[in-house]
Amino acid sequence: MNLGRFRRYDVQASYAAVLSALAVAPLVGGLLLALRNYKPELGQIVYGARGYFVPAYFACIVASLLPGALGFVLGWSSAGQRRNDKPAHSWLGFFLGGGVVTLDIILVIAFLMLRFKPPS
């Protein structure tokens, strides 16, 4: 891959928008996993000791966090540049990536506060 082209701000803006958009799907997967295992009568996220809930949940978070953070940083670095032909892509990557990263952090904190592993 020719990284010389990646120095251009319009290319960074396009990558920011695409990466941030790709980060939404694993975020929704992690949110659906948390909502599926949330028991309102207990007020906790319940999972078994032998299940794959925790690895799948954190895999969704990491798969969402990495491209979201990259999209955020690329959008931030290319947003106000004069030679950027696609400022809308920069701002989309910046705000969507920032939102995804924020929601990922909220999902991790919610899991850590609401987790309940019943004795097996």
Indicate the overall shape.
elongated
Q: Compute the gyration radius: what is it?
A: 18 Å
Q: Approximately what portion of the residues adopt beta-strand conformation?
A: 5-15%
* Fraction of helical residues: 55-70%
How are helices and strands ordered from N to C? Answer: HHEEHHE
Number of helical stretches of at least 4 residues: 4
Q: How many domain modules?
A: 1
Label the structural class.
mainly alpha
Structural notes for this entry:
This protein is mostly helical and 120 residues long. The chain has one domain. The protein is built from four helices and three strands. A three-stranded mixed β-sheet has the order 1-2-3. The model has no long low-confidence stretch (mean pLDDT 91).
Characteristics:
120 residues, mainly alpha, three-stranded mixed beta sheet, 4 helices, 6% strand, elongated
Tell me the layout of helices and strands.
Layout: H1 9-22, H2 24-37, E1 38-39, E2 44-46, H3 53-78, H4 87-114, E3 115-116
Parallel strand pairs: 2-3
Antiparallel strand pairs: 1-2
